[in-house]
Design goal:
Number of strands: 12
Order of helices and strands: EEEHEEEEEEHEEEH
Mean pLDDT: 86
Largest sheet: 7 strands, antiparallel
Distance between the termini: 16 Å
Low-confidence stretches: none
Number of domains: 3
Number of helices: 3
Helix content: under 10%
Length: 230
């Protein structure tokens, strides 16, 4: 299982609230409303990748290492996992608000005009098990790049090679990121246009155009979180 910890707590929960209002006036049917979703997900496959249980190494030639192992002799080297990393435990918010007008211009032609705005916040991990990379940073020695982490708590579980490479706390990075270590996209405006044209009594031609944005999909976050540095 790619050197993964065999213990995998897996939970996904969401709380959602939404409502709409319809107002009909003359040739217009206005609809407006919104919804808010709180996502929470836990996935233990982010636990201790690589050397997940510690290891005992026996050295020597031929069957000597295996013989020493069978005899219960001490290993040449022993490593332990003294501070297991917690499972991924993340949450975020997804909010959307819209206004739409169904405008019956004539008995044969109807227009649908709408606008939606969505605000999806980055996932935040309960134990700050998140890291990002800033490739544009240049330190005093001319080295490119640095890691961006949510807080000092992250250092407890971070690979020492990443710490030695260079890091900065999200709040001190000047990048406008928080504990989710990515910027919140506040520009998700979604216009929608539709048309329905009735031909005779049995046929209707319909067309439309719209801009849509994907949700924050916990599975995508989980997959990225299973790899380095976590």
């Amino acid at each position: 299982m790619e050197n993964r910890n065999t213990f995998r707590p897996l939970n996904q929960n969401l709380i959602t609230y939404g409502d709409t209002l319809t107002w009909i006036k003359g040739k217009h049917a206005f609809r407006m409303g919104g919804d808010m979703v709180y996502n929470q997900a836990q996935d233990g496959f982010a636990l201790n990748r690589g050397n997940v249980r510690g290891s005992i190494t026996y050295t020597g030639t031929g069957l000597t290492p295996f013989t020493n192992f069978l005899l219960g002799l001490p290993g040449t080297t022993v490593s332990t996992v003294s501070n297991p990393r917690p499972a991924m435990d993340v949450h975020n918010w997804e909010s959307g608000f819209f206004f739409q007008d169904t405008w019956k211009l004539t008995s044969k032609l109807t227009l649908n005009l709408g606008l939606r705005y969505e605000l999806i916040t980055p996932f935040i991990d309960k134990n700050d098990l998140i890291a990002n990379f800033d490739p544009n940073f240049v330190d005093s020695a001319g080295q490119l790049g640095r890691f961006v982490i949510p807080s000092n708590k992250t250092l407890t579980y971070l690979d020492s090679r990443i710490v030695n490479f260079g890091y900065v706390l999200a709040g001190n990075s000047g990048l406008g990121v928080g504990r989710g270590v990515v910027r919140t996209d506040k520009n998700d405006w979604s216009p929608r246009v539709g048309v329905a044209w009735r031909i005779g009594n049995r046929s209707v031609i319909r067309g439309g155009y719209g801009i849509y944005y994907p949700t924050s999909g916990g599975s995508g976050y989980s997959r990225s979180n299973r790899h380095k540095p976590f």
